[in-house]
Amino acid sequence: MAPTRAGALFAAVTLALFALVAAVVLTAPYEDPFNVIARLAALWGFLALGIATLLTPFLREILEVFGRSFLSLHHTFAAVGLLLPTLHPVTLAIGAMNPAVFIPVFSPWERFWALAGRPALYLLYIAFAGVLLRRSIPNYWRWVHGLMYVVLLFAIVHGNLIGTDFEDPIIWVLFNALFALSVAAFVLKRWRMMQKKANP
Fold first, then answer.
1. Which residues cross the membrane (predicted)?
2. Domains in the chain, start-ordered, CATH in brackets?
3. Is the dihedral of CA 13, 19, 24, 25 positive or negative?
4. Does pLDDT of 1 surpass 60?
5. Alpha-carbon distances of 175 from 18, 31, 51, 143, 190, rounded to whole Å
6. How far is CA 60 from the centre of its chain?
7. Among 121, 196, 193, CA closest to 154
8. 113-138 burial, b for 16+ CB within 10 Å, e for fewer?
């Protein structure tokens, strides 16, 4: 089944957003290639994860619009959202020759939030593991996978506090709006689940 016009428009907008982010990063005055790669990986990774969460309330609509199952589309964005945020600290560690970027900092409180991307990476993998273990923990895997929203919270705070590219108004508006929409998608999904239980 071929995607509808709405599906093609969504794909075009998505590609445009990735291209826009790349343009902002690549035109910033930074010569260190490790810095550029790390920043692009972080932003693209957040963008992919944000889109993956936005899709979650629309299982039936996705099949109608894209001609593909929700899981195939969701997992595509999730895979990108797993790989690129991993590449972000790996690139920084290689560039600085310092593995400390993988170590979470819990004190003081302000520094924890500034470096919240560090624990977010571990929570990302725990959330991913929840999907792999859904048959082993059928009553809990959704709660574990729901940590993805905590990951997005940690990442957006981290970006706003110390993210170089968040000084650009385009990036600031785009990513904060994406986070707000992700929260809205979470609320909508829970509301639909409640409605379904109330009206089986």
1. 37-59, 80-106, 112-133, 140-158, 170-188
2. 5-198 (1.20.120)
3. positive
4. no
5. 12, 24, 11, 25, 23
6. 22
7. 121
8. ebbbbbbbbebbeebbebeeeeeeee
> What is the dihedral angle through the alpha carbons of 131, 184, 161, 96, rounded to the nearest 10 degrees?
30
Residue-wise pLDDT for 12-32, tens only, equals 999 999 999 999 999 988 778
Local structure of residue 167 (DSSP, 8 states): G
Q: Is 25 helix (H, G, I), strand (E, B) or coil?
A: helix
Q: Which residue carries 């500034």 as its tokens?
A: 114
Predicted TM-score (pTM) of this structure: 0.91
Neighbours of 146 (CB within 10 A): 12
Pair 149, 53: CB distance under 8 Å: yes
Q: Is the dihedral of CA 114, 173, 14, 95 positive or negative?
A: negative
Separation CA 44–CA 29 (nearest Å) = 19
Q: How far apart are CA 120 and CA 101, in angstroms?
A: 12
Q: Are 102 and 116 in contact (CB under 8 A)?
A: no
The predicted structure's pLDDT at residue 4: 79
Among 20, 128, 13, 17, which residue's Cα sits nearest to residue 65? 13
Residue type, 190: R
66, HSE (Cβ side, Cα atoms, 13 Å):
17
